[in-house]
Amino acid sequence: MNSSAATLVRHLGRVDYAPTFAAMQAFTEARAPEAPDEIWLCEHPPVFTQGLAGKAEHVLLNPPGPGHIPVVQTNRGGQVTYHGPGQVVAYPLLDLRRRGYFVKEYVYRLEEAIIRTLMHFGVTGHRVAGAPGIYVRLNDPFAHAALTEPADPRDPFKGLGKVAALGIKVTRHCTYHGVSLNVAMDLSPFGRINPCGYSGLATVDLASLGVDVAPDEVAGVLAGQLVSRLG
């Protein structure tokens, strides 16, 4: 654990999703106005999580028996996503009123922390309007040119792959849930869902982009970016 600018950064290791979700809720409900903000970094065993808007039909294939992945209903925004080993998950537990900005800017700052983390490893991340998270060009993830408009207006994700997902909850100006960044994982479970509710959306990790880096190293860079960008 370390601290910077009154933000505690906790590296939890690999932890089950459901008790971590419960701990975030408990922390947020019990926190006093003067309690320091925290950022939790972790990795989860395989799990699908559904947001408040999540629809059952976006889980396409998850038969019982060997290989079954649990589905956990949550109170974050967004649709279904997957968490698993080799993915870095960050949960900022912040008092936005004390920090002086609103939810829209909070989301922008979260995405900026991911973009800057990717930049550290030579990858250029992009935002797509109306689709929270960070995307990369599949044909050249290291190209620096900005996205100007969709390659195909009928398919805003054409030529793109999603490398980071975002889903948050804000209650009484305090945040929980957060972001996940794919580093070096088994991507096949994403094929069982419509990631974030988008049919056919390609999902990538740093390893599939040709970046050989350990999740712990990425977690350290992301932690620093979150502390900086959310300050």
Helices and strands in order:
Layout: E1 2-4, E2 7-14, H1 17-30, E3 37-43, E4 47-50, E5 71-73, E6 81-83, E7 87-93, H2 96-99, H3 103-120, E8 126-128, E9 131-137, E10 160-171, E11 174-182, E12 202-203, H4 215-229
Parallel strand pairs: 2-3, 4-5, 10-12
Antiparallel strand pairs: 1-2, 3-7, 4-6, 7-11, 8-9, 9-10, 10-11
Tell me what the structure shows:
With 231 residues, the protein is of the alpha+beta class. It has one domain (2-107, 162-229): Bira Bifunctional Protein, Domain 2 (BirA Bifunctional Protein, domain 2), CATH 3.30.930. The chain is built from four helices and twelve strands, in the order ββαβββββααβββββα. Strand 1 (2-4) and strand 2 form a beta hairpin. Helix 3 crosses helix 4. The radius of gyration is 17 Å and the shape is globular. Residues 1-5 have low confidence and may be disordered.
The helix-and-strand class reads alpha+beta
Radius of gyration computed on alpha carbons: 17 Å
The count of helical stretches stands at 4
Q: Distance between termini? A: 18 Å
CATH class: Alpha Beta
As a percent range, the share of strand residues is 25-35%
Main beta sheet: strand number and arrangement? Answer: 9 strands, mixed
Number of separate structural domains: 1
Averaging pLDDT over every residue, what do you get?
Answer: 92
Give me the count of strands.
12
Instruction: Characterize the overall form.
Output: globular
CATH superfamily: Bira Bifunctional Protein, Domain 2
What portion of residues is helical? 10-25%
Going by CATH, the architecture would be 2-Layer Sandwich
Could you please say which CATH topology applies here?
A: BirA Bifunctional Protein, domain 2
Could you give the order of the helices and strands?
EEHEEEEEHHEEEEEH
